[in-house]
């Protein structure tokens, strides 16, 4: 099985997410040893509470109560499947470390892809301004918790009211005191162009929700007072004619002040390819992706929740307004910021992924003199 490569970095299985394992891991053998040790620990741990989340006692025969037995059985299957895939991946990484890449079989290939995503390009759960412990490969994130926390607070999902089929649409982030930056495709779901410019579609509303998950009663239904989304989007500043980019207006803050807007890079960083970056967003499952069913099962619990997704910038096409990166956006993460880990400035606006190529974003520094962004008073730094 050969690992593919492209002009902007190789990918696994045609996915736009992760590059070749030898590009992600400096020592594949050490990663294999860590994953194997963790699998052994999991096999020795209590099964029902840890895997299923149920804290109810098992019956006298050691089995779960009948009303939760089906859920436990599903969880058991998922655990066994995950262990099988990762065990195969460990074997594949060990072959890679030994210089035997040509001996990696199909199951090992899928397992290596899973480990690359879990260890090398993870989607780390977020809670408020904090995030779960990263894998050892990304231990550097621990030293940046305060700055990353400030970035997390300024990113939310776009929750809509009055849409015929959707409760939320993509990701957006604060790019000025009363300005939200997202993609044109996100804005087009609840806005439309007319003779005077862009405006909300009749009967539709939108808000920026920075929480980890949707409230119990998402729009357009009634929302309890304690669940009110704090940042109301009141209008459209403009939609860019060339780039996949839209600027939305927030209502003036009332009560508690909003988080500081993110700093938008006014110039390109040096040594862009290979530079460590991170994406913050709400990856969603996407049936159009070509990962095996096994991969979808492994990562299903990462969908539709706020995630910190570290990776690296892989290239830049100035004429095409394209910044490439390999963060594990998993599914539709459009509108998320691509942030420089070195100084926490936003380098790009994530717009999507292309199979066998990589993830693409709008390089925002290329628009530093753009009249639309000047009118919006974007927070250039």
Give a verbal description of the structure.
This protein is of the alpha+beta class. The chain folds into 3 domains: 21-120, no CATH class; 149-250, Thrombin, subunit H, CATH 2.40.10; 276-375, Trypsin-like serine proteases (Thrombin, subunit H, Beta Barrel). The protein is 25% helix and 24% strand. It contains 9 helices and 16 strands. The strands form 3 sheets. The chain has a 6-stranded antiparallel beta barrel with strand order 11-12-13-16-15-14. α2 packs antiparallel against α4. Mean pLDDT is 81; it is low at 1-18, 48-57 and 217-228.
Write the layout of secondary structure elements.
Blueprint: H1 21-24, H2 28-44, H3 48-52, H4 69-97, H5 106-120, E1 124-127, E2 130-131, H6 145-153, E3 155-161, E4 168-176, E5 179-182, H7 184-187, E6 191-194, E7 197-200, E8 205-209, E9 231-239, E10 246-250, E11 276-281, H8 293-299, E12 307-317, E13 322-325, E14 337-340, E15 346-354, E16 358-363, H9 371-375
Antiparallel strand pairs: 1-2, 1-12, 3-4, 3-8, 4-5, 5-10, 6-7, 8-9, 9-10, 11-12, 11-14, 12-13, 13-16, 14-15, 15-16
Report the span from N to C terminus.
46 Å
CATH C-level label of the largest domain: Mainly Beta
Over the alpha carbons, how many angstroms does the gyration radius reach? Answer: 22 Å
Give the helix level as a range of percent. 10-25%
Query: Which band does the percent of strand residues land in?
Result: 15-25%
CATH architecture field of the largest domain = Beta Barrel
Instruction: Show unreliable segments.
Output: 1-18, 48-57, 217-228
